[in-house]
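lol forgot to send this yesterday, sorry. struct tokens for the thing we talked abt
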């Protein structure tokens, strides 16, 4: 069970104030790979890398996704809640290292993407699938 692409395309109510930062996100590169029944998206901004695994043959708002971003906001604020929601795209060891961190910044424990993941989800929804 995972959260959907549509879920990550918006901030949950608790993080609505992050919306104003979406306009700052500029992707240098967005690359799409189709592997069996999954679509893997690799993206990057100047400082960070994003990865999104869409567990579907065609990109829909309802497609289950797993996400990861290398930014501090994602790792410290959101990864824990995203992991608990079944949508963290990372190794178990990496996940454990996050969860054992005393730094607990997500006061709501609501899963959400960082601004990069939310911006990427919106871009990905617009990407036309290559096959079909
Ligand atoms: Zn990020």
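and heres what i got for the seq, position by position
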């Amino acid at each position: 069970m995972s959260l959907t692409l549509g879920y990550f395309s918006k901030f949950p109510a608790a993080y609505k104030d992050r919306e104003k930062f979406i306009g700052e996100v500029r992707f240098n590169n967005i690359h799409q790979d189709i592997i069996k029944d999954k679509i893997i998206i690799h993206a990057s901004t100047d400082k960070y890398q994003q990865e999104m695994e869409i567990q579907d043959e065609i990109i829909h708002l309802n497609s289950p996704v797993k996400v990861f971003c290398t930014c501090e906001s994602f790792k410290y604020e959101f990864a824990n809640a995203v992991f608990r929601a079944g949508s963290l795209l990372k190794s178990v060891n990496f996940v454990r290292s996050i969860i054992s961190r005393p730094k607990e910044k997500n006061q709501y424990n609501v899963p959400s993407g960082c601004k990069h993941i939310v911006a990427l989800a919106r871009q990905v929804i617009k990407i036309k699938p290559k096959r079909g």
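Residues 102 and 108 are 16 Å apart (CA to CA). anyway ping me if u want another try
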